[in-house]
Amino acid sequence: MKKSGPFTQRPGIPPVPEYKKKKLTCACVCINVWNMEIMYTKKQLEIANQLVGAMDSKFFKSLSEPVRVDIMRFLLLNGQSDIATIAENMPQDRSVISRHLTLMQDVGILTGRKEGRHMVYMLNAEHFLDRFRTLTSLLETCVKECGPLCCK
Predict the structure, then answer these.
(1) Contacts for 120-127: CB closer than 8 Å, 24+ residues apart
(2) CB 3.0-4.6 Å disulfide test: which of 22, 52, 102, 114 passes with 33?
(3) Is residue 133 over pLDDT 70?
(4) pTM of the entire structure?
(5) What gap in Å lies between CA 133 and CA 141, rounded to an integer?
(6) What is the DSSP string of 77-111?
(7) Residue 93 has what pLDDT?
(8) CATH topology for 57-129?
(9) Residue 26: what pLDDT?
(10) What residue ranges of the chain are covered by domains with CATH 1.10.10.10?
């Protein structure tokens, strides 16, 4: 890729003379008005990649399922519980609850420990909060880097 100042230019487009460039910053993008090419600073690309990485789709998908929200609510109100206790309080079959618990454990929303023959599940509050802290921090960084026009 050709470099044009601090910006990364797309291949195949000739560089524009400096005196003909006018840059506008909006939505984390610098626009070269001469040929309407969109260019990003390295820092903006880095921030965007970190932000996308923090938005783990499995994590957020697990929060969007009503049954999983009900399981979280149950664990918040009743504390750690085994699958039999959770399944007794849900309209779904135990096998369905088990699949939900496994997925929630895989993405870090829940932790589980073995007690005899039973698996006891509890909310992993610290991991849960860390995910949202990271996302919030990255969004704040994006707004600071890109200015007030970035996000409204």
Answers:
(1) 120/80, 120/81, 120/82, 121/75, 121/80, 121/81, 121/82, 121/83, 121/86, 122/75, 122/79, 122/80, 122/81, 123/72, 123/75, 123/76
(2) 22
(3) yes
(4) 0.63
(5) 12
(6) HH-SEEHHHHHHTSSS-HHHHHHHHHHHHHTTSEE
(7) 93
(8) Arc Repressor Mutant, subunit A (1.10.10)
(9) 43
(10) 57-129
